[in-house]
Specification:
mainly alpha, 2 domains, 87% helix
Length: 148
């Protein structure tokens, strides 16, 4: 057997393995368009070339290009549409009004709670100032010892 023939055989089997892995990957993600591109490109190349290695390489490249232009582009567009739908949830006038009303109510509730907590925080601060020096540190040390 000549060296060139052995090299061609190895290249052919490497291309076959790559082709099979591509098909398995496309099928596993349900990318039927890329599978169809692979098959169509393979059949088209069969008409022009009897070299199986070239046929498989062209089919692999065709399916990769098909995936890159159609599937990836569609997923990007679909994700953008999903994000827009999420942002625009209730985007009609009624939905926007309801969302605005909910937001105003939440802000009022938070403001009311903050106003109630102000005097309580001042009172707690005044009480802590009246504690003897190092009292809180000792209390925390004892607390930590008990909970280990």
């Amino acid at each position: 057997m000549k060296g060139g023939s052995l090299d061609n055989t190895v290249v052919y089997y490497v291309v076959v393995v790559v082709a099979i892995l591509n098909i398995v990957a496309y099928v596993s993600v349900h990318d039927w368009k890329s599978v169809a591109c692979f098959v169509v490109a393979g059949m088209a190349m069969y008409a022009f070339s009897q070299n199986k290695t070239i046929l498989l390489i062209v089919a692999i490249l065709a399916s990769a290009i098909c995936r890159a232009t159609y599937v990836e582009g569609m997923k990007t567009q679909k994700n953008k549409l999903d994000d827009l739908k999420e942002i625009m949830n209730g985007a009609n006038l009624e939905g926007l009004t309801q969302n605005a009303d909910k937001l105003v109510k939440r802000q009022k509730d938070l403001f009311h709670m903050a106003n109630k907590m102000g005097p309580m925080m001042k009172q707690a601060s005044d009480m802590m100032k009246q504690l003897p020096e190092g009292f809180l540190e000792k209390a925390m040390e004892n607390f930590n010892k008990q909970h280990k």
